[in-house]
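Form 12-C: Joint structure prediction
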Amino acid sequence: MSAANLAPQPGPPLWLLAELTYRCPLHCAFCYNPVDFATSGPELSTDDWLRVLREARAAGSVQCGFSGGEPMLRDDLELLVAEAHRLGFYTNLLTSGVGLTAERAAALKAAGLDHIQLSFQDSTRELNDFLSHTRTFDLKQRVAALIKDNGWPMVMNCVIHRLNIDYIDRIIEMAVELGAEYLELANSQYYSWALLNRDQLLPTREQLERAERITNEYREKYGDRIRIFFVVPDYHEKRPKKCMNGWGNVFLTVTPDGTALPCHTAKMLPGLAFPNVREMGVREIWYESEGFNRYRGDGWMKEPCRTCPEKEKDLGGCRCQAYMLAGDPAAADPVCDKSPAHGVVVEALARAESGVGRSAPLVFRDPAASRRLAEGAG
Amino acid sequence: MSAATATDACPRVSRRFRLQWEEAQNAWVLLYPEGMVKLNQSAGEIMRRCDGSRTVSAIVADLEQAFGASGLADDVAKFLELARAQQWIET
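Section 2 - Result
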C-alpha cells in the first residue's frame, strides 16, 4: 500500500458496544449474534469490563451500549453501568425486558443509566403469534411502565421481516399504546441467523412498499407524539449502506469473550485477526491493530469501488456482506448494482417474490443449534 | 420572535439531551439515546449558558463580554430558533 493510500488518522471510537453475554432467554430467528456463539470462550469478568470501560473512555468513547444476548443476565450490570456513568459515558441498555424487574430498574436508575431501548421480540417460538401473544404484550407493558416511572425516554425497537411486516400498523399502534416516544422499525439485515432464514424472512417489494406507506400515514397521524424511524432492508436498495459509518471509524464492539471488532459480525471475516481486550489496550486496538486498520480509508478497494464516484458516500458497503455473498471481503457489497455479484441479491429477491423456500422451518437461535451449525462449518 | 428567543426567556437544555464537554473531540456535544450532536464552538458557547436561569439578554451580554464582541443578539436568536426546532432547548 502506498503512502498516498494510507487512511488519515481516524477519530476516537465514539461508540462502545459492550456485548456482555451471548446468553439469552429468547430464540430470535433474525439474531445477529454469530451462528457459532455457543462455542465462544468464557465471558469477560467484571474487572475486565471495568478496565475496558476506563480504557475506552480515555480513548474518547462517549456512547456506551450494553447489549448481548440479554445483558440483564449479567448480575454485575448495575456495577458496570455505574462505572460507565461515573466515567461520563451516555449509557444505553439494549434489552428485551426479560429480567427487568422493578428492583433492577431502580438500581439501574440509581447507577445512572440514561436510556433503555426495549425491543419487541417474542419470548416464544411461535413467531406467527408474535402480535397476539398476550404474555409478550404483558411483559412489554410492565417494562414500558417501569421505563416511564423511572423517567427514561421510551425507545422501542422492532425487527421487521416477512412474517410481521404486514402487521406494521398493529406494531405502531402497540408502540403508541405503550407510550413510546421513539419507535425504530428495523428491517432485518441478513447476517448470521437471519441469513440462515433469509427465504422465510425477506419481504417482497410489495410488502415493503405497503409498510413504508403505512408508516408514513402514522407519522402524519401522530406527528411529534411518536418519532418513527424506518430502516430499509438493504437488499431492496440499489446502493449499499455505509456500514457502521465506516470501518473502524466510530464503532468499537467488544464481544462477550473480549474480542474487539469494528462491527458485531466482523469476526466471520477470513484471514483477519482481531485483538482481545484481555491482551491489548483499547487505544492500541483502535489505532494500531491490523484488524481495525485493514478496511479503513479506501486503499483496500477493488474495482468497481476504486474508481466509483460514489465511493466516499458508502465506502463500498459492508465487508461482511461482501464476504458472505461475493466470497471476498474486499469486493463491492453485492447490494450495489455495480457489483459483479449483484445477481446473488437479485436472486434472493426473486426467491422472496416467488415465495420459494418460505415454508422451510425457521432455524431458531439457541445453543444446541449453534453447536450443531458450528460443527457443520468446521 | 418565538418563546425560545424572547429576550426575557430563560432557555435550558432539553431533558431529552445531555450537554457535555468532550476533551477527545475538543468540543461540546449533545448526547441522546444512541446518538450525539457535536457542536461547533459558538453553538457550544451558547448552549452551555442555557441553564434555565439566565435570560437570552443575559446570555448575549455574557457572550459579548467573554469574546470581546458586540451585536451578537441576532446570531444568538437565530441559533436558539434552530436549537428549539431541534428540541435541544426548552423554555
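Section 3 - Comments
Chain A touches chain B at residues 11-12, 14, 59-60, 62-63, 65, 88, 90, 92, 114-115, 117, 153, 155, 182 (CB under 8 Å). DSSP finds 14 helices and nine strands in chain A.
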